[in-house]
Inverse folding.
């Protein structure tokens, strides 16, 4: 009569060694792994690893979410700044339109007013433009 030894190696088998290996009677000598390895392994160790991995994943996701939230808040602030700048430009344009002054050279000759017909040079802008052109001509002429 042959029994399993307490040091029987079950590492290549899916099951673990029996709790009392010396009480297991083997049919052949030496005992086989199917005879000595009869205990289904505990999944506690695997579950702990899975839980640790899941906890690590959750922590990483929380960190990433926090980082994304910070970036979105920064983008919202930037968009608010852009909106403010656009509103300021709109206000300046409105003031310019109301005052009638402009830095556009095409508007120096009276603009496109539908109320009056013909040529208008109320502020002597034409004279100023012609004077600048003549001065540039003589300055650049060699």
């Amino acid at each position: 009569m042959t029994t399993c030894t307490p040091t029987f190696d079950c590492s290549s088998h899916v099951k673990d060694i029996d709790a009392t290996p010396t009480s297991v009677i083997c049919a052949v000598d030496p005992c086989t792994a199917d005879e000595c390895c009869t205990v289904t392994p505990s999944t506690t160790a695997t579950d702990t690893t899975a839980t640790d991995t899941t906890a690590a994943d959750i922590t990483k996701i929380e960190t990433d979410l926090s980082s994304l939230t910070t970036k979105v808040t920064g983008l919202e602030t930037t968009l608010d700044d852009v909106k403010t700048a656009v509103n300021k430009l709109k206000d300046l344009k409105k003031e310019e339109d109301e005052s009638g002054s402009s830095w556009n050279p095409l508007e120096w000759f009276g603009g496109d007013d539908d109320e009056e017909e013909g040529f208008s040079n109320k502020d002597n802008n034409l004279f100023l433009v012609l004077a600048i052109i003549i001065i540039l001509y003589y300055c650049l002429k060699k």
